[in-house]
Amino acid sequence: MTAQFMENLVYEGVAMAMCTAPLSDFFALGGRAVRLKPRTNTALWRGYIGSWEVLDGRLYLVGISATMECGGKATLEHFFPGYPKRVFAHWFSAELRVPTGELRKYVHMGWASEYEDEMIVSLQRGVVTGVRMRSGQPVWLKSEPDARVDRS
């Protein structure tokens, strides 16, 4: 699999990129599927790029970049009728992985590349429950436990 385009995130007023696709969890739970134009780029298997914002400790979907199967531009209302500007991500209970340091090792697969530092934002039903910094290789790519202490 090709390395994937990142999602967009605004956190505390700062624009960042993230290696997490919270909208995928919505679809996995049976959320409204929208017929998007077939992908033409192997770096975008999911067919869209979401724009997200953490506001007052809550995660919101604030935009989507995708093309409808008919050729028109996809909007939030295609996925969430009645919500044209933002949608609270109440379906998302996981972590956002936000690279904050330099790329250390490019991996030509999904979001497996390694960064000097990462911000990990934990969420429960769309509400931020914790934020921590992690240095070095992502924990899920290691074979032994991470002995380092996270910075906070």
Look at the structure and give the mean pLDDT: 76
Helical fraction: under 10%
Q: Pairing-aware structural class of the strands and helices?
A: mainly beta
* Tally of separate domains: 1
Spell the H/E element sequence. Answer: EEHEEHEEEEEE
Q: How much beta, percentage-wise?
A: 35-45%
Count the E strands: 10
Query: What does the main sheet amount to?
Result: 5 strands, mixed
Strand order of the largest sheet: 2-1-3-4-5
Low-confidence stretches: 138-152
Q: What is the radius of gyration computed over CA atoms, rounded to a whole number of angstroms?
A: 16 Å
Structure summary:
By secondary structure, the protein is mainly β. Helix content is 7%, strand content 36%. It has helices at residues 22-28, 76-79, and strands at residues 7-11, 14-18, 49-55, 58-65, 87-88, 95-99, 103-105, 114-115, 117-124, 127-135.
Record the SSE blueprint.
Layout lengths: L6 E5 L2 E5 L3 H7 L20 E7 L2 E8 L10 H4 L7 E2 L6 E5 L3 E3 L8 E2 L1 E8 L2 E9 L17
Parallel strand pairs: 1-3
Antiparallel strand pairs: 1-2, 3-4, 4-5, 6-9, 7-8, 9-10
